[in-house]
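Dissemination and training. As part of the outreach component of the grant, students in the summer workshop were shown how a complex can be specified as a set of sequence lines and then modelled as a single object. The example used during the hands-on session is reproduced here so that future cohorts can follow it. Participants entered these lines:
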Amino acid sequence: MKSKPPSATPLSRTLAAVFRRELRIAFRQQSDMLNPVLFFLMVVTMMPLGISPQASILSELAPGLLWVIALLACLLSLDGLFRSDYEDGTLEQCMLSTQPLYFIVLVKVLVHWLTTGLPLTLVAPLLGVLLSLPVDGFVPLWLSLLIGTATLSFVGAIGAALTVSLRKGGLLLSLIIMPLYVPVLIFGASTVRYAVDGVGYNSTLAVLGGFFALALVLAPLAIAGALRMSVEE
Amino acid sequence: MLIQSSIQSPIQSPGHPPLLSFKQVACRRDSRTLFAGIDYAIHAGDIVQITGPNGIGKTTLLRAIMGLMPDYDGEIYWQGQPVDNARYDFTRELLFIGHLTGVKKSLTPRENLQFLANLQGRVSLSEIDDALAQVGLYGYEDMLGDQLSAGQYRRVALARLYLNHTLVWILDEPYTALDIEAVASLEALFVAHAKQGGCVIFTSHQAPSIAELKVLALTDFQSQPLWNEGNYEK
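and obtained this result:
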């Protein structure tokens, strides 16, 4: 017999390898990474031109607008999440790994958030200025987007996994994901609105946190299952 | 010498169950039966080529073995146990290189190997560079995938064979896009792996020049119409 494998790879090592690889790929394909941020930036800058440059009107709309546009920007980035891994056989290899797919998927989605959701969150306060968001709204906007976009990445990845084997899955993906995004949008936007209105926003932020915790734990299960289905057909 | 004999002895010894065995394995796709009634055993030290015309289900059989196609009839055993019960033990000993190799164009050969190898076992950077040198990619370690030719691209995946400690190698069309020299060294690697007690299962349309080759021709397992079954006597 051939010598035994030198002891199984520790999970952390595999996950570190997945993490490094995903980050590398993201940074090599910068246009994919910058696309959502650019979309966010462009749409927000057009808002004053399209609606009205008056601060009073804009500040009224700002919480909702910022959240809706951030959400659409997230949606924009989802389609390719698993597509290339599916097409070049990486997913098969991940499934034939001795490591659980759950954690591999978890790391993949985390990197997706780091390269799309996090940049969106970071530029959001700047765009808040463009839409004359009242000062009280900045911290809640930042916090709610930080938690919210992470939830959006996890939930959206379920849709991306379900539609990965379809050549034109974009439309279906939006249809599957949109209803799931609605609660996040409601609580995200109202967090900012409450803060602007001077009401406590901790409760809505806590609900967002709850969504995130649920998505973090459960979404990878659904994603791994959906990917398995797509590869096994 | 002692080590030598202990390495050699388990091969083909009657007490050992075969690494992989099939019992009445059948696959159908959209109500069309691809193949049926495969009874076959693959022992340590075997090199098995699965042959048959396009569309007969070579890849499907490979996927059934690996559990990527759970929808098959019959039983597949890994070292005497039903493979579904021994999935973890089996995957630990499995290396698969498919049509789609899992090699990314936006990564360099070194980065690709680092990832693929870490999915299965622990490898160091110097081992990776050695493996790349073995497949003739010395000097190409840091080039992006788009700068490599189709054959070189393929070799990145095959370099995993040099890094690997698993028993079972399953390869789908490994000769695709390889030049004559690479094919020869690949065959030599197969033989060496089989000598060490592993087994190699691969599909190909070419006739490899391996002396110990066993052929599993899927054309022998085409399903008989039901009403013929009574006449089937030998």
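Helices of chain B lie at 2-8, 58-66, 87-92, 109-120, 125-134, 150-158, 160-163, 180-195. Students were then asked to discuss how this feature might be tested experimentally.
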